[in-house]
Design a protein that fits this description.
By secondary structure, the protein is α+β, with helices and mostly antiparallel strands. Helix content is 42%, strand content 26%. It binds adenosine-5'-triphosphate and magnesium ion.
């Protein structure tokens, strides 16, 4: 089963392809409602209603394309297998918002995986873009924002190997605190 962080990487990849300059990733672990909600919001070129309709339908997508077009349908299927759902909102010229809800304790929920690694890699590979990663778990909350990091770097490139390592470790330490 694919880790959720890799699904998120797929979704962010769509946003990058769509020309986004800002991608906001949100993870909300709500033990009260037993849900894990993943939100990915971008300011890319968006989708027409027609494309949006096709993208949401796994059968349509998998039948009309051979290899491509499985990113969103697969995530949707995984979410629904845990009693959750996937929703997409998009408007041409405005951007796209994807929300996937998983049953948190459901046996079929994939593990979250390596979010620090995924976020650090995205930052390093796309130094001109901005990324926000918000993670809520119960009472705990952590927010990472490349706009703040870039300001603190005072001109040092975010794509520098040492900076990427630092970002990964910083996120990792903060998530560790969140999960205590
Ligand atoms: N954030 C987005 N902004 C604009 N268009 C999007 C976005 N996400 C998806 N799309 C559109 O939906 C289509 C399907 O996305 P999906 O991730 O399911 O497949 P894909 O990216 O085409 O292929 P794959 O992910 O399997 O390599 C994309 O080709 C693109 O046209
Ligand atoms: Mg894709």
């Amino acid at each position: 089963m694919k880790e959720l962080s890799l699904h998120i990487l797929d979704i962010v990849q769509n946003a990058i392809t769509a020309g986004a300059s800002l991608v906001e990733i949100g993870i909300d672990e709500d033990l009260q409602s037993d849900t894990m909600t993943i939100v990915v919001k971008d300011n890319g070129k968006g989708m027409t209603a027609e494309v949006l309709e096709k993208v949401c339908d796994p059968y349509y997508t998998s039948r009309t394309t051979r290899r491509v077009g499985l990113g969103i349908p697969l995530l949707k299927q995984n979410a629904e297998q845990t009693g959750g759902r996937l929703q997409l909102e998009s408007e041409p010229g405005k951007g796209t918002l994807l929300e996937a809800v998983f049953g948190h304790q459901h046996i079929d929920r994939p593990a979250l995986g390596d979010m620090p690694g995924v976020v650090a890699m995205l930052c390093g590979a796309n130094p001109d873009m901005d990324f926000v990663y918000r993670h809520r778990a119960g009472e705990g909350y952590y927010c990472f924002d490349t706009r703040e990091v870039k300001e603190a770097l005072e001109g040092l490139p975010i794509s520098e190997a040492g900076v990427i390592r630092f970002i990964r470790e910083m996120i990792r330490e903060n998530l560790d605190v969140l999960n205590q």
